[in-house]
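hiii so um. not sure if this is the right channel but i have a protein structure encoded as tokens and i wanna go backwards to a sequence. like what aa goes where. can anyone help
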């Protein structure tokens, strides 16, 4: 009896202890699980709130970027339009520049042409002045030596030679030296018509001009006949030119030679008539056209 009671008491104690332990363990486990879920919910809500805040900020940023993109697009269009306008203006200005350059070139060419014509006119005026001075010198006196001096001055100062000789007709078929600057060769002191260059000029009445190397080779640069009414009364032979002339006669030089050919002979003829009048003798006068080809 006593043993059975003890056994019963043990069972009661075990049952009570087991029940108490199970109840306590279940309550603790349930409390811990609830706290974890709560914590997860709170963390989730906090993350969601953060994500919502970031999303809102990103939405604001996107809106700002869209606004900036629209503004930049508008600015880009405006700049493109300005660039097109600038290009069009540049093209117009380039066209205007090209037009101005062409006009400037035309004006420059015109100025060069005018300057060239001005130089030509100045040269012609100078030539005319020289010819006038030469003609005045030839006919400014009836003194033979003064006329010969004028001829020499024209040859030296205007044509440019210090090696020449002046011939006059002696008889029917020859020329004789009457004046010179440098001593002419002995072979030229007297020249027969038709012999050599000087004689051929006297016989034909046509001038001889040979510039450069050919003139040096023949020893005569130029030779012109002196004529009165078509009759050869003398000749002027230029053997060499001054160094600065480079052995070449210019257009003015040839005009001066032509002037001497026509006027120097008349001037010398007038001095001869004047001397004959002063001497009291009957002057020899030729009428125009008296001398024929054979009389030359």
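sure thing!! here u go:
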């Amino acid at each position: 009896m006593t043993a059975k009671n003890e056994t019963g008491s043990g069972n009661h104690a075990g049952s009570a202890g087991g029940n108490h332990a199970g109840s306590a363990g279940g309550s603790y486990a349930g409390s811990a699980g609830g706290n974890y879920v709560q914590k997860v919910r709170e963390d989730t809500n906090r993350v969601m709130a953060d994500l919502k805040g970031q999303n809102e900020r990103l939405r604001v940023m996107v809106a700002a970027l869209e606004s900036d993109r629209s503004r930049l697009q508008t600015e880009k269009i405006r700049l493109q339009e300005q660039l097109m306008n600038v290009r069009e203006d540049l093209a117009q200005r380039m066209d205007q520049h090209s037009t101005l350059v062409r006009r400037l070139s035309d004006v420059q060419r015109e100025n060069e042409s005018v300057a060239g014509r001005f130089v030509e006119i100045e040269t012609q005026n100078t030539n005319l002045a020289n010819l006038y001075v030469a003609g005045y010198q030839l006919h400014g006196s009836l003194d033979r030596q003064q006329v010969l001096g004028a001829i020499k001055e024209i040859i030296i100062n205007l044509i440019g030679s210090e090696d020449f000789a002046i011939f006059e007709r002696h008889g029917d078929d020859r020329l004789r030296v009457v004046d010179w600057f440098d001593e002419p060769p002995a072979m030229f002191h007297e020249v027969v018509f038709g012999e050599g260059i000087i004689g051929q000029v006297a016989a034909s009445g046509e001038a001889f001009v040979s510039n450069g190397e050919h003139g040096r080779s023949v020893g005569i640069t130029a030779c012109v006949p002196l004529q009165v009414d078509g009759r050869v009364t003398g000749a002027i032979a230029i053997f060499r030119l001054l160094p600065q002339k480079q052995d070449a006669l210019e257009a003015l030089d040839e005009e001066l030679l032509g002037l001497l050919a026509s006027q120097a002979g008349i001037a010398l003829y007038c001095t001869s008539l004047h001397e004959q009048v002063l001497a009291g003798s009957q002057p020899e006068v030729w009428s125009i056209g008296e001398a024929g080809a054979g009389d030359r």
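oh and The longest helix spans residues 2-138.
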